[in-house]
Write a structure and sequence with these properties.
Oligomer: single chain
CATH topology of the largest domain: Rossmann fold
Strand content: 15-25%
Number of helices: 10
Order of helices and strands: EHEHEHEHEHEHEHHEEEEEHHE
Length: about 300
């Protein structure tokens, strides 16, 4: 499958480009970036072509991988979907529900394959846990704490304007939702509180009646940083296992799922429709915090 890569930042270097280049089922066609010099540098590292225009790269491939901020990703992904290209997107798929829904609709109308790269969901330890938890059932609650700092020296994501503006809710919040929603069911109500510099607490009610509590930050004090997730119910109190942090390997699994879906295999669980669902919850959470209300999500 012939892939084009949009984006030249740290995530493109760490995950997208090396996985595209290494995958035996992928022909890595080329790179487009907002900074032509960075695009040329990344393309040169992998011996592929640099494309000057978005539509030029879309026209030359079967599928696109996008490693761009969500507000930049969404319109490019929509153009690609409308051109009949399969999508491997980053999270969140968009910052607005109308953009996310339009993208999901375009994919559905054209029967395209799509994957959203919720990184740890593609680690075998986590994917195996989620499958087992869904099969077990009977869960009444979950807790996810995902706190760290991207602003420490040497962290490549600290220079990202959208992460600085949107904080942990939008950066690591999608990872938390990608864990709890498949197990507990769609979110029907959300409320929350936030504190400076970047601390978000969410309380979510799920369609089956379960409740999850989520704490998020990308600017936490070093000694307060933690990544923990626990489910509780009839099976007891069960922690989610730690996953090996290997973005390139995880992206390779995402590629496997997309290629399989294009060939008629199962629809990936973390597809664009699910990505739109996650965006809707994050938008509702922003409103809940801003207006100090509980927001109900439509079915």
């Amino acid at each position: 499958m012939r892939f084009g890569l949009f984006g030249t930042g740290p995530w493109a270097h760490m995950a997208h480009a090396p996985a595209l280049a290494a995958h035996p089922g992928v022909e890595f066609a080329g790179v487009w970036g907002r900074d032509p010099a960075k695009a040329a540098d990344l393309a040169g590292r992998f011996g592929v072509r640099t494309y000057a225009g978005v539509d030029e790269l879309i026209a030359d491939v079967d599928a696109v991988a996008i490693a761009l901020p969500p507000d930049v990703q969404a319109p490019i992904a929509l153009r690609a979907a409308e051109a009949g290209r399969h999508l491997l997107l980053d999270k969140p798929v968009a910052l607005r529900t109308d953009e996310a829904n339009a993208l999901a609709a375009a994919v559905a109308e054209r029967d395209l394959a799509s994957v959203v790269f919720f990184t740890r969901r593609f680690a075998p330890e986590v994917s195996g846990f989620v499958a087992g938890a869904v099969a077990t059932g009977g869960w009444t609650e979950a807790r996810v704490d995902h706190l760290g700092s991207i602003f420490e020296d040497g962290n490549p994501f600290g220079a990202s304007p959208w992460r600085r503006e949107r904080g942990g809710l939008w950066d690591v919040g999608p990872h938390a939702l990608a864990l709890v929603v498949p197990v507990l069911g769609p979110v029907t109500e959300v409320t929350g509180m936030a504190a400076e510099p970047d601390l978000t607490h969410l309380l979510l009610r799920h369609a089956g009646g379960a409740i999850s509590r989520v704490t998020l930050s990308v600017d936490a004090p070093a000694l307060a940083a933690r990544e923990e997730a626990v489910f509780a119910g009839r099976a007891g109190v069960v922690p989610v296992p730690d996953a090996v942090w290997d973005p390139e390997q995880a992206f390779g699994v995402a590629l496997d799922q997309l290629i399989s879906a294009v060939a008629g295999g199962a629809r990936p669980e973390c597809d664009v429709r699910f990505g739109a669902e996650v965006t809707a919850v994050l938008v509702a959470a922003e409103r809940a915090i801003r207006e100090r209300v509980t927001v109900r999500l439509e079915g």
